[in-house]
């Protein structure tokens, strides 16, 4: 299993490749706001763990294992953002909150959150009921 730090890199690498078709060390460093030397060290670790193949000066490619994990990590992040938005968390806080919790939740908890999001999406009146409860609690 990748560490939380490895997960952050795999998630971002997956997104960059999905968006641009490639992920360079400089792109990853910019996206994660870290030094390129830190990216190089992590990429070498990810290569050793067979999440990607890295060739110095030539770039990197996710292995099937890396793609599978990366896709799942992006899904987890997007699901948690959607859940936070759904329950009324301020948009300015969502990214920071998701970053703070995503590595600490089990995949079972993520699946149950997915069930809850689906439950609210299937019937808009359910989400309206939640909003009404929140309004009552915010304005006693």
UniProtKB/TrEMBL annotation:
Modulation of this protein's activity: DNA binding is strongly activated by Mn(2+).
InterPro entries: DtxR_MntR_Metal-Reg, Fe_dep_repressor, Fe_dep_repressor_sf, HTH_DTXR, HTH_tscrpt_reg_MntR, Iron_dep_repressor, WH-like_DNA-bd_sf, WH_DNA-bd_sf
GO biological process, one term: intracellular manganese ion homeostasis
Chain sites annotated for binding Mn(2+) 2: 11, 77, 99, 102
Compartment list: Cytoplasm
Binding annotation for Mn(2+) 1: 8, 99, 102-103
Gene Ontology CC entries for this record: cytoplasm
Molecular function per GO: DNA binding; DNA-binding transcription factor activity; manganese ion binding; protein dimerization activity
Top-level taxon of origin: Bacteria
Domain HTH dtxR-type: 1-63
Record carries keyword Repressor: yes
NCBIfam families, per database record: PRK03902.1
HAMAP family, per the entry: HTH_MntR (MF_00732)
Subunit-level organization: Homodimer.
PANTHER family, A to Z: IRON (METAL) DEPENDENT REPRESSOR, DTXR FAMILY (PTHR33238), TRANSCRIPTIONAL REGULATOR MNTR (PTHR33238:SF11)
Family classification: Belongs to the DtxR/MntR family.
Role summary: Central regulator of manganese homeostasis.
Protein name per its UniProtKB record: HTH-type transcriptional regulator MntR
């Amino acid at each position: 299993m990748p560490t939380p730090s490895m997960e952050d890199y795999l998630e971002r690498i997956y997104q960059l490749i999905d968006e641009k078709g490639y992920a360079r060390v400089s792109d990853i460093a910019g996206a994660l706001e870290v030094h390129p030397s830190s990216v190089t060290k992590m990429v070498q670790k990810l290569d050793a763990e067979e999440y990607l193949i890295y060739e110095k000066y030539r770039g990197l490619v996710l292995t099937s294992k890396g793609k599978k994990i990366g896709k799942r990590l992006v899904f987890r992040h997007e699901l948690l953002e959607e859940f936070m938005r759904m329950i009324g968390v301020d948009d300015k806080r969502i990214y920071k909150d998701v970053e703070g919790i995503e590595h600490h939740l089990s995949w079972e908890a993520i699946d149950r959150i997915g069930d809850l999001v689906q439950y609210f999406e299937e019937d808009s009146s359910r989400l309206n009921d939640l909003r009404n409860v929140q309004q009552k609690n915010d304005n006693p």
